[in-house]
Design goal:
The complex is a heterotrimer of chains A (about 170), B (about 170) and C (about 425). Chain B has about 170 residues and is of the alpha/beta class. Chain B is built from six helices and four strands. In chain B, helix 1 packs across helix 2, helix 2 runs antiparallel to helix 6 and helix 3 packs across helix 6. Chain C is elongated, with a radius of gyration of 25 Å. Classes of the chains: A alpha/beta (about 170), B alpha/beta (about 170), C alpha+beta (about 425).
Chain lengths: ~170, ~170, ~425
């Protein structure tokens, strides 16, 4: 099914559905996330049973601050869908989907590591890419890029995020 | 590959080397030269390939660009048996203590070649995750720039290292 | 008395518990890596062993974390290509392709047909090069040292082709949003045709060495089984999934860049062990040769390789100069002496680049390791807002405990070799 058909099929259960650039995007609340994924997986003409990736984007100053993005794919019908959950900045908790999709294990660990989003009921929520004693969550927009300023021929070049664009 | 021409190139000894020899006496300098020659003849690199530069290092050891011409095709897995560490690739903050530990386990005399700009200075990744230059952790003898350096560039760097070893006096 | 009895049975007496007199059985926890000759890069494995059998296995990654995704947020869209290409460094063209396809979707443009043919040609050559590195290093780790030299010998020919076309052997920033940066050099088609002539015989050589080799069979047949349900549940894609009988290949299921117009097969096996993955990769090399041949025929007609829109296409025209690829003399004369507007346009495009409208896109391609996806978010700026790389090796490594536990420790090496992980993609 193409994007418009999928959107039409699920609009009854999911009021927040829109189609952009040939993709279907569904917005759900974190309380309904697990039920929504189960419904999307079990309905025979949708059968979104393959989770490609779990990630997050950070929009500081806006509400919701974090958007958790789940990319779903159907093995039988070869179509895709995106589920997004919005989280407030001061309470970034979302239920873990590892009980439904075991592949989400490392994706959620990476999102915790880089963004600080807590996945409740995750079997082993530890840092995965950064050292275990690292402080901070680097991919948040309020964390700096880091790296030292470079000295060359007497001139000083600041790190990348402190340079001004021409 | 450009070769440096300096005075004494044909006899194998620079004027400074000759003077040094006269000072130390014939016995010690002959042994000195012999030891330096032996050290550079067949250095065994330790496997420390990290990222893209590691693939170019493997290409340098493979058939076309043959490191075996200098007896270096044998990459030793155990650092105790190696005397050269080619840091090939970007060193992340998590890998830095491992790098230092492997360097400490190597037995003297040991040398370090920093291959690629990521190992030499952080490369294009001036950010929180990469050590900006591996010379902040281990002492480096030769820096080979490039992203990644062609195997010929790595070989040139290794030959420069051989020159450096050959001209280093070890016995006082 | 106990010590004497143990001596007779061959059990060292220290193994007995002093108090109860029973023989102690303990498991041993050992650490493989991150610096290890056989773990395919900086991968660390924590193994709990009972003798030689692996009871539990935990892969620990992150030793190559480079912060690529954070860096792309501080650079222009075209500079992002240079960052993204170094994630999975054995298949750089695929990283660039996924990123550029995502950016083009956000811009609402399509690359010209000749650029698409060039992209397919280089990607399939990259697939062959990546599988050659896999067969070389995989064989080296299992002890077949000659295969290492043969694999790298062929790869050098492919890298010569890459160097003639893009100027670099690895990590080319050749595929850019809007097309590719340069057309083929004059002797490009001849080099590729010569490669196509010699390569099939070389692949026959590899099969002659490895296919019926008893040691290769012993070490790979029946090792590292991963059933189709487990693979799909763990998110595994690529040759590992196809070795379990699931015929998913994104080149056929979600085609892009004209893949639907090429005639090729997707090899699928059902045994789901390391040997079937080897067979699939060798077969994929042959199929890629077919695609390269068809792409080469289509390159007979000339055409533009970068989109015409001046707000998007890279302004500089490159050509082969005396010391490699550099700026075209005629173009330099044009911007420096003839036209001020062209100079200003060139300056703005190179320093600021294109402004991409707001939106988000997920684009997936079939890299040699599986589904490589890019989730690109734009906030109507000159630089990306978020670039997330869904790397296949990162997800495939989650299957290592399932495949390794219960087997021997030497099989763990064979399993990881058959997975073909590239740690640059895992850690980014």
């Amino acid at each position: 099914m193409n994007a418009a058909e999928i959107a039409g099929r699920i609009r009854d259960h999911f009021p927040d559905v829109y189609v952009a650039r040939d993709e279907v995007i569904v917005l759900v609340d974190r309380g309904e996330l697990i039920d929504a994924l189960i419904r999307l997986r079990d309905q025979p003409d949708l059968s979104f049973g393959f989770l490609s990736s779990v990630t997050a984007t950070d929009h500081p100053g806006k509400d919701p601050r974090f958007w958790i993005v789940y990319e779903l794919r159907s093995v039988e019908h070869a179509h895709r869908l995106r589920v997004k959950v919005g989280l407030p900045g001061d309470d970034p908790h979302v239920p873990s989907v590892t009980s439904l999709f075991p592949t989400a294990d490392w994706h959620e660990r990476e999102t915790w590591d880089l963004f600080g989003v807590v996945f409740d009921d995750h079997p082993d929520l530890d840092r995965i890419l950064l050292p275990d004693d690292w402080e901070g969550h680097p991919l948040r927009k309020d964390e700096e890029l880091g790296g030292v300023g470079t000295q060359y021929h007497g001139a000083f070049i600041p790190p990348v995020d402190e340079r001004t664009m021409p | 590959m450009p070769v440096e021409r300096y005075e004494g190139h044909l006899t194998g000894r620079t004027p400074e080397e000759v003077e040094e020899e006269v000072r130390k006496g014939v016995m010690l300098t002959t042994m000195d030269r012999a030891v330096s020659w032996a050290r550079k003849q067949s250095m065994w690199p330790a496997t420390f390939g990290l990222a893209c530069c590691a693939i170019e290092m493997m290409s340098a050891g493979a058939g076309r660009y043959d490191l075996s011409r200098w007896g270096m095709e044998l990459f030793r897995a155990s650092p105790r048996q190696a005397d050269l560490m080619i840091v090939a690739g970007r060193v992340s903050q998590k890998m830095a203590p491992v790098l230092r530990r492997v360097y400490d386990q190597m037995v003297e005399p040991k040398w370090v070649v920093s291959m690629g700009v990521c190992a030499s200075a952080g490369g294009m990744f001036t950010n929180y995750a990469i050590v900006q230059g591996v010379d902040t952790i281990v002492p480096v003898d030769i820096y080979v720039p490039g992203c990644p350096p062609k195997p010929e560039m790595l070989m040139f760097g290794i030959l420069k290292l051989h020159e450096k070893i050959r001209t280093t006096g070890t016995i006082r | 008395m106990d010590a004497a009895r143990d001596e007779l049975r061959g059990v060292p007496h220290q193994v007995r518990d002093r108090v109860t007199g029973e023989v102690r059985r303990e498991t041993m926890i050992i650490n493989m890596g991150p610096q290890h000759p056989s773990t395919h890069g900086v991968l660390r494995l924590l193994l709990e062993l009972d003798g030689e059998t692996v009871i539990r296995c935990k892969p620990i990654v992150g030793y190559l974390h480079t912060g690529i995704e954070k860096n792309t947020e501080y650079r222009t869209w075209v500079q992002g290509v240079a960052y993204v290409t170094r994630a999975d460094y054995l298949s750089p063209f695929f990283n660039e392709l996924a990123y550029c396809l995502a950016v083009e979707r956000l811009l609402g443009i399509e690359a010209p047909p000749r650029a698409q043919v060039l992209r397919v040609l280089l990607c399939e050559l990259n697939r062959i090069a990546s599988h050659l590195v896999w067969v070389a290093t995989g064989s080296l780790e299992l002890g077949a040292v000659s295969m290492m030299l043969y694999g790298f010998r062929e790869r050098e020919v492919i890298l010569d082709i890459f160097e003639a076309i893009t100027g670099l052997r690895m990590n080319h920033s050749y595929i850019r949003p809007g097309g590719v940066i340069m057309d083929l050099p004059p002797d490009g088609p001849r080099m590729i045709a010569k490669f196509l002539d010699t390569m099939p015989a070389r692949i026959d050589d590899y099969e002659r060495i490895l296919n019926d080799n008893p040691i290769w069979l012993e070490r790979n047949v029946g090792v590292g089984k991963l059933s189709a349900e487990d693979a799909l549940a763990l998110g595994v894609t690529g040759p590992i999934l196809r070795s379990a009988g699931v015929p998913i290949d994104l080149r056929k299921d979600e085609p892009h860049s004209g893949y639907e117009t090429y005639d090729f097969e997707v090899p699928v096996r059902t045994e789901a062990d390391a040997y079937s993955r080897y067979v699939i990769r060798i077969a994929e090399m042959r199929e890629s040769l077919r695609i390269v041949e068809q792409a080469l025929e289509r390159l007979a007609e000339p055409g533009p390789v970068m989109v015409e829109d001046p707000k998007v296409g890279w302004p500089v025209k490159l050509s082969v100069g005396p010391d490699g690829i550099g700026n075209d003399e005629a173009y330099l004369r044009h911007i420096m002496e003839e036209s001020m507007e062209a100079l200003i346009h060139h300056f703005k495009m190179v320093t600021q680049g294109v402004r991409v409208p707001e939106g988000e896109v997920y684009q997936a391609v079939e890299s040699p390791r599986g589904e490589l996806g890019m989730y690109v978010v734009s906030a109507n700026e000159h630089r990306p807002y978020r670039v997330k790389i869904r790397d296949p090796s990162f997800v495939n490594l989650q299957a290592v405990p399932t495949m390794v536990e219960g087997g021997l420790i030497a099989d763990a090496i064979a399993v990881i070799a058959s997975l073909d992980p590239v740690m640059g993609g895992v850690d980014r």
